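Late entry, written up from scratch paper. The run itself happened at the end of the previous shift, but nothing got recorded in the book at the time, so transcribing now.
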Amino acid sequence: MIKSIQIKSEESTFLMPQENQEIEQHLTVSSSGRDWLSRFGFSLSSGHILLKREYAKIAEDRVSTLFAYLAEYSRHPSDLCARDTGNWTLTIRYDDRPALTLNGSMIDQVYAGDVNVSTWIRRHIPLQDLMAFGDEEA
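Output as recorded:
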């Protein structure tokens, strides 16, 4: 049984990011429905910095749906890759076995059947501007 998931999303920047520009997100969803989002940016003086933490809660039936989609994806991950974009890392933590980690390019190609998981996350987790697995416009 899945205990929690974490999606680390990082945008690729070919140029030096602007001061305090958001460049990375860590989204964690627990089996209880609690969601944590950490937004990271860039600072000329400090490098990688925490910009903001946000919290939300989703219904347990939505958690079950999300976990089922990610479990399905983990059985049939995409091997599409892009070199001119950022990357994501998905960690699935279980109650009864070691964690599973998957990686990919930020090209919004994480599907469970015909469900785009990034789009599903953005529609059902009440946090703004989620990177998830890539931009919808990508």
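Helices lie at 60-75, 117-124.
(Scratch paper discarded after transcription.)
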